[in-house]
Design goal:
Serine Threonine Protein Phosphatase 5, Tetratricopeptide repeat, six-stranded mixed sheet, five-stranded mixed sheet, 59% helix, CHAT_dom, TPR-like_helical_dom_sf, CHAT domain-containing protein
Amino acid sequence: MLATIRRAHCSLIDCEIARDTDAGHAQFAAYVTSETVSHLNDAVQHFQLVLDQCPVSHPDHATALTNLAYARLQGYIRNDFEDIDTPTSLFREVLALRPQCHPDHPLSLYNLTEALTWRYIKKSTAADICESAKLYHELLPLLVVELCPLGHQHRPRALYKLVWVLRSHFRQHGSIDDLDTSIRLGREAVFLCPEGHTDRAYYLHNLAFSLECRFDHQGKPNDLNETVSLYEETLRLCPVGHESRDTSLDNLGLVLISRFNKRGNIDDITGAISLHREALTLCPPGHPRRDTMLNNLALALDARYHKLHVIEDLNEAIDRYRESLRLKRHDHPQRHRTLHNLSSALCSLFTETRENEDIEEAINLCRESLAALSSLHPDRYFSYGWLTNIYLSHYQILHNPADLSLAIENFRLASGHRTQGFPNRIQTALCWVTEAENHQHDSSLEAYQMCFELFDSHVMTRSSIISRREAATAFRGAQALPVDAASCAIRRHNLRQAVELVEQGHGQQWSLASQLRTPLEDLTSASLQLAQKILELNKRLSHAQGSAGSADPAVADQAATEYRRLTRQWDAAVTEIRDLKAFSRFLLPPSYEDLQAAARQGPVIILIASQYSRSAIIIPTSGEPHHIPLPSVTLTDLNNLKDRFARAIRHASIMGPKLPRNDLIVLLRTVWEEIMLPIVNVLEHVFKLKHGSRIWLCPTAAFTSIPLHAAHPFQTRADRSKEPCLEDLYICSYTPTLSALVRSRQMMKKRITPSFVTIGQGQPGTGKGKALLAVDSELELVNKLVPAIANRSTISGDAATRAGALKALEENTWVHLACHGKQDPVQPYNSHFVMRDEHLTLLDIMEKHVPHAEFAFLSACHTAVGDKETPDEVIHLAAGLQFSGFKSIIGTLWEVDDSVAKHVVKAFYENLFDGLEEGGVMDCTKAAWALNRATHAVKTKVPLEQRMVFVHIGV
């Protein structure tokens, strides 16, 4: 911003200063209009004369410095001057002369920030962007309050420059807060330039670029969609003949490449190539942006080659990369990208031609790109990644162990490069796992551990429960990580680590959410202040994650920023706690010793279904875990088995109750012989477990959809004595994770006077399901069986609303719920109980915290079965109640027939409360035994599939 010399003095020298200043302004204006360099040179000459006449003591010295610096800076921006150091130094001198109390301090601060930003953009000097970002943090309040307040004509332009500074700082150092702030400011700039504004296209592009960066860093689908829309609007504002059309074509093409790489739609890459070809025609030889257009066209062709394997695409990509590289100076800030892009293409060519010279050139280019970057530069990740591909390709041809070692080392460097975004690093870690497993490399367990750490960090950046699941399910193949990691540890004969790994990855969503509900009694006795601090942060984080789902992107961004701010405070508090004696492992992944507490009342059996092996691990009350291989069942067998169960259950539901269930009998015999019998043999002969003892099943992956508890030999030959089934031998319960069972046991210490509520909704609203005619009679039956020592209440009919049911869950320790239940296969957090007005969802339940709750009987359909996308997460209604505080739960695996369910309900409560006299204690830990007795008692009244449907979860 050019300054105006004050004309307060009338001396001859002042007249000369004024004359030269006016001449400089006139020449600079002519330069801006005509872009003739001679005008700029004349302007600089006049401003230099003014400065020579204004020594440091002169009142207009700082103004003269500003005019000269600004003119030289604009010449640098427009590529007419190569010197950026002089204007930067001049602006530093001005800022030193105008401290914070000076009225022109904001202007001086702004000018220096702009100079440093442009020097970074063209020279990519990390120190420049660090300094400009530091100055920005000082400038922002001045900008919005003093220099360019709301309504100021230059405010959009100032915001534009600040967005550049912040985004550049993010790209150098990976601070997501800088990127979020750049998006917030970018949105404001777009708002201030509505449709019809001459500069709207520039502000749309600036915002889109920031959103694209955030998509690359965090992988949020909404950011990608919004980026495409913004670039499409920008292109519409730059029709044929517009000076910025080439840039708009290029930007839209690049984001379409990103979307193609994410979703694989061939129309995206075809459109991208078309856009980049048009952009290149607008940048003929000699055009300053031709090198960029060549690189990006090559990028699109390279992407299509990897999809369709058309060699012509690869050959043209290599030619375009080479031409782009020839046009780039060695100090060009983007040269490293063309280097590693060409390296990647040459690696692909090597796989086609087997020419060593291609692979050797590829290695050298990658090394050259790394040499050009600072140690923390995010783009080092890409060079590491391409070096990994190069060495792997070379290894596959020559089988030199050194190549494999170098590939693994670059996997390690790429996945651990902390300034690169989590999505890219996770993808690299997943590839590391695959290659380490394929080549049986010693780093496989390290690769699995890296995946878990990155997933935890990535998911915790999301500020809502639903968005965390979206983040966790966005990576193909990641769902099998926990079981594959455990299988790897088993093959390495490390059963303790297998248990730790399967727990760390299994039920990740519950583990992350439960961190905000950690019991703090022990911490309170060690440090009341820290306990109160973490408790308050837990509450604020829970509130923040609930407020981050706004449909308004700006509101959602602000909520996400606040969530991250609280997360940093929470992390700092956790670090303080870990410094305390006896709290060094506070909220860290549990060790085997921690997890073994789940087996305090009986062994826990983890069933692992991996592509590499199928097995079970028995965790005893004390001592070492025991491994049981299940070699006779493959992963395909298990998937077929769960599908056959689903068909058999559907078939049984339309059969009469007296017809034999032959399909189910065959399937349950298979479960017994191939899965549970080897486990039972170990329990009996190795652990000497007495019949009637309790056991807990913790199934993973494909095992989660199989009714393991109902395994039965179903002997039919009359000459053989009857062989007992699993439920004849042991009292079976399930647990979603070992940590969930440990946590429930810890919370059992809080016993209060029991209160029992029955909740029933047999007449849901229109379109919410058929009437359940037996609900009222079921509630009446339960109330008769509940002992008088409990405070009893009932909610049904019009009172059984979403709000009424939630309140009852919060206020009572024992609950019996009879209604329709629905598991949502697409979004499991929307699974729900059907009430009179609105659905009572799993998300509603999870947001409640009822530590005094004890028992819930869910007499509803589909309350204990997970979703297809994340079977290991066990995200269902029963698990949600356990998370909210209920320790012992009866849930259902499939549809419940309310006409016969009442027989199971009656037998269950009769056994549970049998012999309970006045003054006795209602004990929810007897629920598993009572269900076992009930299913035996109703064999003649209830068909097999309706006895099997009920399962026990928890203590």
